[in-house]
Amino acid sequence: MSQRDYVEKDFYATLGVDKDASQPDVAKAYRKLARKLHPDANPGDAGAESRFKEVSEAYSVLSDTSKRAEYDRIRQLVGSGSFGGGFQGGGYPGAGFPGGAGGPGGAAFDISDLLGNLFGQQAGGGSGATPGGRGAPRRGRDVETDVTLDFADAMAGVTTTLRVSGRAACSTCMGTGARPGTSPITCPTCGGRGQILSDQGVFSFAEPCVACGGTGRQIPDPCPTCHGSGAESRIRGIRARIPAGVKDGARIRLAGKGEAGLNGGPAGDLFVRVHVAPHELFGRRGDHLTVTVPVTFTEAALGTRLTVPTLEEPVTLKVPAGTPSGKTFRVRGKGVAGKGGRRGDLLVTVDVAVPRKLSRTQRKLLEDFAATDDSDVRSHLDAALAGAGGGP
Known about the structure:
There is one protein chain. Helix content is 25%, strand content 23%. The chain is α+β, with helices and mostly antiparallel strands. The strands form six sheets. It has a four-stranded mixed sheet.
C-alpha cells in the first residue's frame, strides 16, 4: 500500500466505523462486510469484488495498531495544515503554501512532495523518478482471504490452494508490459523521471511527462494481453502451507503473495484468516485436546480399561475402581503441536452413564447392593439441614 493511500482514502468510512472505534468493533464491521462482499458469495459481480478489495485494504491498516496509529497521525498532520499546503487529489484544502491551491496563481503542488516531507523519502518508494513522479515503483496492495479447514487438518497442518482474485503480474509478459521478446525503454523526453520541470519565478513546478504518461518509460511494442500495464485482473491459485495446530481465527501472512506492484514495485502481502470447523468428538483447550468418554456405573465402580480415540492411533486408558463421574485423566503428548514442536496433552473426562431402564434382575441386584451400602454420601449436608429446621 502506498503512502498516498494513507492520505487519499478514508478507511474508517470504508468499514463504516467511527474514528474512535475499538479494535473489536473494527473487526466486527470487517467480518460483516467481508461475508457480504466476498467473491465466492457474489460470482461475476465486479462491483462487489472491488468493494471487497477496498474493505480488505482498510482492515489491513485499521486492524494493526501500529499501522492505524501511523495512518491517524498522517491524516491529522495533513488535515490540520501542519505542512502548510493543499495538493492535487488528496481531499484536503490548501492552507496557504506558496503555489498551493489557495496560493498565488492558483497552482497546486503534488501530494508526493508533501509525503516526502512527512517520510523523508520519495513517496513512490523507488529510484529513477523525481519525488511525486508517477513512474516510481509502487508496492502492490495487501489482500485478505479466508480459508476453512476441518479440525483434523488444522491440528496436523496442511498445504492447500487458495483462490485469490485481484491484480496480478501479467501471465504473458510476466509484468514487464512489453510483448515477449521485447523490453521497455527509458523515456527520452524526461530521461526516466516521469516529469517535466518548469520554472515560474522562484518556484519550480513538475508536470507529468506527456510522452510517457508519467511512467518514466515507453513501451514500443506493448503486451497484447495487458496492453502495457504489466498487470491483469485474474483469479490466482496460491499454494499455502497452514502450520500444524493453527487456531480458529488465526491470521497468517504470506509475504509477496498480494496484488502485483506497479512499475516494477514489489507485490503486496496476502493475509489468510483461518476458520477451523468443530470436531464431533474433540474440543480444544490451548494446546490440549479434550474428549468426553461415557462409562457404565459398574465400570466406574469396579474399574476398567478404555480404548480412547485420538487424532492418530487409539490409546488404552486405565480407569481405577471408584472413579467418580467428571474425573479427567491426562494422556501426555496426544494433543496439539505447539511452538517449538512440543505437543499438548489429551484430556479425557469420564461420564458415568446412569441406565434409564432396568430389568427385574438388575433392579433386584441393585436393591440388594443398596441394602448393604452403609456409606453416607450426604453427611456434609446434615448440619445445614439441622440449622434450617429440616433435620429429623
